[in-house]
Amino acid sequence: IGHVEVCLKRRRRRKEVRKRRMIQIVQEVQFEFEGRAIEGSDFHGIKQLLKQIFLKSSVDTTELTEIIVSEGDVESTIKVCADEGTEDDGSVLGIATVVSLTHLKSKCLCEVKDLFLKECKAHSQSQHTLLSEVLDGKKGHVGFLINERFLNIPADIAAPLLKTLLKEVKQASAKGKQYDFQYYAVIARTHQSPLPKKKRKKASTAASPPLVFEFTEYEALEQGSLLTFSYPVLEASGSVFGGNWRFGDQVLEPFRTVMILHEKELEKAISHL
C-alpha cells in the first residue's frame, strides 16, 4: 500500500508541474494594426494573399500583384503598428484595393473574368448572361474589389479599411482618374460545414449545409448583391486547407463566392459595417 501511495504522489506532482508549466507558457499577446499605402517591398506579401484567393486557378497572380503595386491610387495594406524601439518587419497581413476590369486590358484581368464566367456557367448557369453583360462593361464600368487578409487578423479592421477605400475611389474619380465604377465584382472565401453523422446517410435528399463566409463583412455585401454564386475549390486548394480545417473527422470543404454589386448597394453595405 505504501508503494502505491508513493506512486500516486509522484503522479500528482508530475501533473502539478505540467499545469504550472502550461500556465507559464500561456500568455496574452496583443497587437495593434493599421492601414498603410502600398510600397514596392510589399510585392511578395500581396502575392501571397492573392494566392489564398485564386489558389491554383489560371489567374496570373504575379501580373495582378504588379498592377496593384503600380496603380497605387486606391489601396491599403494591413500591417502591425511598430512600438517605439521595436523594429517593423513590414509583413503584409491584409490588403484592400480596387482594380478596373473595364479600363485595364491586362491578361490577368481577362483571366479573372474568364474564371468567373466559367464557374458561373458550371454552377449557376441562370446568372451567366447577366454576369457576362456586367463584366463586358455593357452596364457600366466595373471595379474588382479585393479584400483579403489572414484569418487571425481581427474583423474590426474591415469596416474602417473599406470605408477609407471607397473614399479614395471617389477622390480618384473626382480627379479624372479611371475609378468611376458603376458595379463592383467581389470574390470571397467561404466554406461548407460537414453534415452531422446522423444526416450523412440522407445527404442525397437533405439540403446542403449553408456556406459560411470566412470574413463576416461579406455577409452585408451579399445582402445587397445583384447576383451571387459559389463554386468549390477543394481540388485546387491542395494542402492549404489541411489538418487545421477539420470538423470532427471531416475536412471543411472550401468554396469561393463571387458577387456583383451596384455601387450604391456596395456603399450602403459598407456604411452599415
Write a structural description.
It is a single chain. This protein has 273 residues and is of the alpha+beta class. It has ten helices and ten strands. It has helices at residues 2-25, 43-54, 61-71, 107-123, 128-135, 158-174, 197-200, 217-223, 234-237, 263-271; strands at 33-36, 75-80, 94-100, 142-149, 183-192, 211-213, 227-232, 246-247, 250-251, 253-262. Strands 1, 2, 3, 4, 5, 6, 7 and 10 form an eight-stranded mixed sheet that branches. It has a two-stranded antiparallel ribbon with strand order 8-9. A hairpin with a 2-residue loop joins strand 8 and strand 9 (250-251). Helix 4 (107-123) packs antiparallel against helix 5 (128-135). The longest helix is centred in the N-terminal third of the chain and has 24 residues, at 2-25.
Quick overview of this protein structure:
41% of the residues lie in helices and 21% in strands. It is of the alpha+beta class and 273 residues long.
**In percent, how much strand structure appears in the residues?**
15-25%
Could you give the count of β-strands?
10
Poorly predicted regions are 1-9, 239-244
Structural class from helices and strands? alpha+beta
How large is the radius of gyration? 23 Å
Q: Measure the end-to-end span.
A: 66 Å
Order of helices and strands: HEHHEEHHEHEHEHEHEEEH
**Mean model confidence by pLDDT:** 84
Number of helices: 10
Q: How much helicity do the residues have?
A: 40-55%
